[in-house]
Amino acid sequence: MKHAVSGDRLQPLSYREVRVHDPFWTKYVALVRDEVIPYQWEALNDRIEGASPSHALQNYRIAAGEEEGAFYGYIFQDSDVTKWLEAVAYSLASVPNPKLEQLADATIELLARAQQPDGYLNTYFTIGHQDERWINERDNHELYCAGHMIEAAVAYYETTGKGKLLDIACKFADYIDTVFGVEAGQKRGYPGHQGIELALVRLYEATGQPRYLKLSEYFINERGQEPNYFRLEADGRAARFGQNYLLREPYYSLYKDGFAYNQSHLPVRRQRHAAGHAVRAVYMYAGMADVAAAFKDPELIEACRKLWDNVTQRQMYITGGIGSNHDGEAFSFDYDLPNDTAYTETCASIGLIFWAHRMQRLDPDRKYADVIERALYNGTISGMALDGKSFFYVNPLEVWPQACQRPDKKHVKPVRQKWFNCACCPPNLARLIASLGTYIYSQTDNSVYVHQFIGSDTKVNLAGQSVQLSQQTNYPWDATIDLAVSPDQPAAFTVAIRVPGWCENPSIVVNGQRVDIQAAMTKGYARINRVWEAGDVIRIELTMTIKRMYAHPNVRVNAGKVALQRGPIVYCLEEADNGAVLPDIALPEQAPLEARFRPDILGGITVITGEARRSSALGWEETLYGETKRADVVFPIQAVPYFAWANRGEGEMQVWIRER
Amino acid sequence: MKHAVSGDRLQPLSYREVRVHDPFWTKYVALVRDEVIPYQWEALNDRIEGASPSHALQNYRIAAGEEEGAFYGYIFQDSDVTKWLEAVAYSLASVPNPKLEQLADATIELLARAQQPDGYLNTYFTIGHQDERWINERDNHELYCAGHMIEAAVAYYETTGKGKLLDIACKFADYIDTVFGVEAGQKRGYPGHQGIELALVRLYEATGQPRYLKLSEYFINERGQEPNYFRLEADGRAARFGQNYLLREPYYSLYKDGFAYNQSHLPVRRQRHAAGHAVRAVYMYAGMADVAAAFKDPELIEACRKLWDNVTQRQMYITGGIGSNHDGEAFSFDYDLPNDTAYTETCASIGLIFWAHRMQRLDPDRKYADVIERALYNGTISGMALDGKSFFYVNPLEVWPQACQRPDKKHVKPVRQKWFNCACCPPNLARLIASLGTYIYSQTDNSVYVHQFIGSDTKVNLAGQSVQLSQQTNYPWDATIDLAVSPDQPAAFTVAIRVPGWCENPSIVVNGQRVDIQAAMTKGYARINRVWEAGDVIRIELTMTIKRMYAHPNVRVNAGKVALQRGPIVYCLEEADNGAVLPDIALPEQAPLEARFRPDILGGITVITGEARRSSALGWEETLYGETKRADVVFPIQAVPYFAWANRGEGEMQVWIRER
């Protein structure tokens, strides 16, 4: 069951309604389908040579009483299985695959058998830790795992129409609803790692059961109230097990100075500064936006907007990366955006997209789609190698491989790692890419919004007509987009096309007639309101010049530096093209730059070339400090898209280039 | 007893032979005498309010059987007492103070009573850990503490003529000589924290007993031989206490990947790259230079020279700071010299001076005195507030106070700390400053070297004559030095005056007659060979222009940046003078700069002023990244000497300034 679209409320089209056929993205979709999902299945079955065993499916078999043994893995190991199921669901939506569906069905059966009579489902606790249920929500990821299971259930139900996993999810959610809440005998708790909030809203949308929405709202409203639940919980454990027990809790040190790490330091409605673990934060903000939209809750909407401003105006990298602090994988303070020690977890950028997507629903302002685009084309897909076989968790903006030996940079890897152990970012990328269709369009009763320029087909009901939309483009390399708009019958409605923030001189032509964009613009969308007929074509030309981007003066590390951007793509210099000691390269302010598509490297990319300057090391051999300024020589540079870095072996990389 | 000066062997004049009366340094000497030494005495007696108790003297009383109780403090707590005694000795040499001498004498009596019959003296082990003697040299600092005691003993003997502490030291050293060595039944060990090597050479020089020199040589030669002694030792502990015991050893993690942390990863003669804990390293290199000089050991000399080149050409900050890695307080790899996460411990710069001083003895090349000067006027005294009451252990070259909250910068303090707990740097600074006379002159049979320009008087025997030398200067603010050379009788000898590496156009005039410096120069010293008579005056004019200093292109963090230096003084920008967001300031290449003495700030310093540019934050409020380059406005800057930073409250600071 889906909410009816009502009036001006923006409703995203689902991945199920949108078929992606895009030269840029189809490669990624295929990688996820052909590489990532099968690899993940092998991993879940402990068949990857050289990798530590996942044990995740075996945990379920043990919990179901079908095998003997102990739980093995992270406390959130279950979520590896449900993340895989969610990615499978999206993948099946675009390309049916009966064999894969069969594996998924069998896995769901296993989950059903592992579910406890009361609805509880978490193998860590079922296998030998029955009495530890709900005693440490702060660290134990029970509600987090439940959230991923719910998301998988909704996706699998939507895609296949099969209700088995949805039933499991509802049964578990109903049980959770009895455990947590403000009634007598209930725990006034909430998740230590957020995620279930947005999952419950999806469950509500899929089932129409308001209790799931209310449970989500409860988690959001309760969070950060005093006395802090996690403190009460810890006091309870201390009373039960003794103070020394607390010292052994894995994240103890993160809470010593308060609860910002998991955003329970303040009631969420009072939060204005994004703080703590970045993935937890943006998952929560996404859930807040969902609940705010559902209840039209102005206070919660205001908190979402203020947090949005804080993140995007003070704490976001130009790549759409967030979380500049390795310690706690966390936000830092305003303008603290170091390039070489950034954490910028792939999952955090993905979560930023989830959040932006929901903010967009609250308010069709292009700033949300701009951020989605920035993260999509830069800080998320940088997480995966071009062959889909290795992954970054951390996406730095500057790398000197030798310096990654330093303990303060040991989290920064100069090459992507095989998918081992903590399987967090790869499956998250998989579900993002497999559900890419979700981010392209949304609609109201009589308007359709085009947020992203991704080759795709969809059909929407507008003004009582079924309207076929077909988008063709070679974006992001090329700035031309053709959008065919074909209603069954001629009808008046609005097509609202996002003019990206980076684009200064767009041109939009309908059937050869130029649209007055200035007049049509509302919050960054060119609203074309006319009677549309079958065969109408909108041609969008987004002049894609090379932009020299500068950072706010308070971003101290980028003082005197410039980043190159063309369209949505942020560029970087790599050692493979420009030799070592990249910081020595300086780009003159007036240096002409040229963009050129090169099919021969990195799977086909547009490179930027130009004449920079660099100094000669001549005469410096034995001199560490000298009065003689280094001789400056002309040096041709080639910049490549940031997302494609580290696909040619280990080497230096930097996004921000000195300007002179 | 002192070695006879023989032929061309360079012999430094001792602090006892040189009276310092210098406008710049006398303030520091007085601070050490009037603030630091008395404060330290109060600390040793647990009379500092708000500080954790030192317990150091009480430990001695307990070890002497005069009080009941347990040992308290760091395992090297004893050295706090002997460092104090050493500083007292130097201070008494310049200003007699019977009351202070009485306190020292009483303390020495206490040490005597705490010494064990076999000569052993370390209160941690004597109080309840008798059976742990010499089982963990890697971590337990037994030989390190012995080294500090020996140094104090030599200094106190030299200064006061009193032999009590020297007797204690000899007795302990004689005992150590029975424990360690290559004979059957001896341990083939060496210190985990070096220092005793150079101390034993001082003991040899004070007593004339070659066994102390040989023991020092043994420690140096044995270090890093295979099988590694610390591994054998650890295996022994594992056999005795079990493997789990090893995991609890404090520095275990530092040794997992080898023994570079304490420089036992290779035999010292084969070491070419400075590695590991910087203070341990330079104390060891100083000991190596001593032993190399004593035995005229070409292989050891070569190792010293190669290590010197590595440190000063690849791993030293422009302030004379060393140790760029917080983890292990250690050297890093070549050219890895981050400004904002530097460790650059005050003690490491002091150790660099100790080492350079000994290298100078091997080879009178000005490069050694240049480094001593660089460290003296910058990276060492930066460790102490101008009022002598607070101290930096870490001396960064760039500070953004808010960023010191970040875990990767938490070792960097934006303001100096009261002297608490690990009392390492403050007493080390005290002994350096109190013995400053040591670094100014050295001599051979018929020449005297003037290494440093510090107002001072001394008397040397040259060519059979007693020669009075008197140096007067307002260095480092002023470039003029008057050196009066007055032999009892006219005599021919050489006065070799260092022309600092930073000085391009020196002028040296003897009794009004210009010296041909080019002709007189040997390894950076202008050698003036003539018949000197009473009343001769050398006027040295070192043109002190403002230098724009650049770093080797491989020092990536300093690309495009300039540091200001005038004479030996390295400058920095502070928020107090220039407002916040210092990295935004850019200094045009051609900007005229002016030096001016300002008696009104920071105790009287020469400031550098000039016109830089900075951007306006106008229009950036809500924009984090934009295409518009920031408007650039003229901005007058004032730079102050680096050593004087952080004496006006908390604020930003940076040494390296963007150039444009």
From TrEMBL, chains A, B:
Domain (Non-reducing end beta-L-arabinofuranosidase-like GH127 catalytic): residue spans on this chain: 17-437
Positions of the Non-reducing end beta-L-arabinofuranosidase-like GH127 C-terminal domain: 547-658
Coiled coil feature spans: none
Residue intervals of the Non-reducing end beta-L-arabinofuranosidase-like GH127 middle domain: 448-544
GO BP: carbohydrate metabolic process
Name under which the protein is recorded: Glycoside hydrolase family 127 protein
